[in-house]
Amino acid sequence: MGVLDRQRAVRLYRGQIPSPGRPSVAWRQDRVRFWAAIAAGAMTEDAAAEAGVSSPVGFRWFRHAGGVNPCLPETVSGRYLSSDERENIALWRAQGAGVREIARRLKRAPSTISRELRRNASTRTYRLDYKASTAQWHAERRARRPKTAKLVSNDRLRQYVQDKLSGVVRGADGQVIVGPAAAPWKGRNKPHRGDRAWVQAWSPEQIARRLPLDFPDDVTMRISHEAIYQALYVESRGALKRDLVSCLRRGRALRVPRARTRSKAWAHVTPETLISQRPPEVDDRAVPGHWEGDLLIGLQRSAIGTLVERSSRFTMLVHLPREVGYGIIPRTKNGPALAGYGAITMANALEQTITTLPAQLRRSLTWDRGKELSAHAQFSVASGVKVFFADPKSPWQRGTNENTNGLLRQYFPKGTDLSR
């Protein structure tokens, strides 16, 4: 670097700033679109496509944020230069336009453009080369206002929260009190519920509400439940141990957006299969061939299907044997449905049963919102029976079938192995 270049850098009140390295794959507005799609219930892949980034980038954003929406405002205040304006500044500057000419085109003050060229230019080589990507990186880096999390700066509060989350009980001397041994957990689901720590663990909201009672005169011992959740979910917080998420009621390591859980509840129910789209002749019970169906659940997730014809009350039972590998392949979340009433197995069993009837007696089938009939489209194509789903929590819309199931319980009481 020459003497003149050094003097120029000093006069402009700028030292050498490290390069941002590889330019960011997306800007702030892309993250805003991504999280807006997540808040609307979109899956991560779809939200990434909406933001114009790849799926791995979207998954990384979601994982690093712990599923917590950073609540970025949609637009930056007009007093600040946008990324589009910085692109124009870089283009016009390369074409030789002066500061006042650029300011006139952007309808900005000349001092704004002059300050932008000094503050956000690339100085890795001690030359003030203005690049839009580097300038945007400098602006976003400078705009950050990181605040130390309360659980990081307050050791006493952090220890209190960690003890309550993990179910630790301490005496007056601060020593951990070991309780009696708990009986082993006999349930097949969620074995961590048998841990004493889980039984005694407090939720973040319980902790936040208890602090004013335990420390009424110490205002530093206050924290919101959302701050505790973010300390567990967001990697950059680093205040609480990551393994404490297993002590939460749900035990999730990432927050699942509420809109996403709502949209997944009955994803197999399409608008044309709603009970409101069912032909009016079904309600009259005058035309035979309209059926109601459901499952009877027995011992160890065994089941039989029940079909009741609305006009004649004729009943057919659907045998649902175990699938190959049941009892051998361990049960896993989202694993193969081997109990006998998975979607494909259920559709095939219903088809084999109902196709024994003539076509005049195979008009429609009304089912509840159970996911065992998720493959209803395949069943309708194979059997010619249109499928309709009742409204949530509305068993009276399938009253004939519900009454028949109650009668069948006399012969198939609860606790019976129905797979034989």
Automatic annotation (TrEMBL):
User: What's in the GO CC field?
Assistant: cytosol
Biological process GO annotation list?
Answer: DNA integration; DNA transposition
The record's section on SUPFAM superfamilies has: Homeodomain-like, Ribonuclease H-like
Q: Output this protein's name.
A: Integrase
Q: Which InterPro entries match?
A: Homeodomain-like_sf (IPR009057), Integrase_cat-core (IPR001584), IS30-like_HTH (IPR025246), RNaseH-like_sf (IPR012337), Transposase-Integrase (IPR051917), Transposase_IS30-like (IPR053392), Transposase_IS30_CS (IPR001598)
- Family in the record: Belongs to the transposase IS30 family.
Q: According to the lineage, what is the superkingdom?
A: Bacteria
Question: Which PROSITE patterns would you find in this protein's record?
Answer: INTEGRASE (PS50994), TRANSPOSASE_IS30 (PS01043)
| Role of this protein | Required for the transposition of the insertion element.
Entry keyword set = DNA recombination, DNA-binding, Transposition
GO MF annotations, alphabetized: DNA binding; transposase activity
Which residues does the UniProt record annotate as the domain Integrase catalytic?
Answer: 275-420
Presence of keyword DNA-binding: yes
List every stretch annotated Disordered. 399-420
Pfam families hit by this protein: HTH_38
- Family annotation (NCBIfam families): transpos_IS30 (NF033563)
